Amino acid sequence: MLIRWTILALLLTASIAVRSSEMIDRIVATVNGHVILQSDWDEELRFECFMSGHTLRDISIDQKKAALERLIDQQILREQMRLMDSKPTAAEQIEKQMDILKADQLRQHAGASWGTALSQYRLTDKIIENHVAAELEQFQLIDSRFRPSIQISATEIEKYYREQLVPKIPASDPVSLTDATPKIREILVQEKMNQLLNSWLETLRSQAQIRITSANSSNNSEGPQGETR
């Protein structure tokens, strides 16, 4: 009899643990059948807060919704990377970006260690590396798709120099149009790439099966309400 009650107790405990796990890590969205979990959303929010230096308490409902929308966009882009057989980011590139992030962290928070900063947001080196690798891969996809078709005219560069750059340059330290041209060209290329990316994502979203379910984020603030597209 004791053995039977022990087995029943174990089964009940396991059942409660499973239900608890389902409540904690439930599905918040699906993209073409791919599942986005609550833990994915929470991690994205913690990563964004870490990168911006904000606390989770500072995050608004709209910002949480925007983070979930970015996760959806990221999944859509991952599907495109698979279709285009994109190569993964080289380890050297990831390491270089990690070094930049660590240097920025030390510069902005003198005396605070990298490990301490990560622990405050319940992040690890591996989580940061995964996010960095994903962002680099997405940039590579976007760059290879759009950059070759973008043309920046001399007129556009001169207009940006005159209207955007010159008013911000100290009179004591002038910068010529010739010297500023490479930087201005890249800024304008990036702007056009963003415009093309937004248009492309709109098209991809209209063709995708996206379902957003009702969910709450782990910091006890409401997330997006249910939506089916």
Written account of the structure:
It is built from eight helices and four strands. A hairpin with a 2-residue loop joins strand 1 and strand 2 (34-37). 66% of the residues lie in helices and 6% in strands. Helix 4 (91-108) packs across helix 6 (125-146). The protein has a four-stranded antiparallel sheet with strand order 2-1-3-4. It has a single domain (23-228), classed as Triger factor/SurA peptide-binding fold, CATH 1.10.4030. The chain has 229 residues and is of the alpha+beta class.
Concise description?
The chain has 229 residues and is an alpha+beta fold. The chain has eight helices and four strands; from the N terminus they run αββαααααααββ.
Query: Number of helical runs?
Result: 8
Helicity level, as a percent range? Answer: 55-70%
Q: Strands across the major sheet, in which order?
A: 2-1-3-4
- The rounded Rg comes to 23 Å
CATH architecture grouping: Orthogonal Bundle
Number of DSSP strand runs: 4
Query: What ranges have pLDDT less than 50 throughout 5 or more consecutive residues?
Result: 1-23, 217-229
Describe the biggest sheet? 4 strands, antiparallel
Q: What top-tier CATH class fits best? A: Mainly Alpha
* Range of strand content: 5-15%
Alpha-beta classification = alpha+beta
Arithmetic mean pLDDT: 85
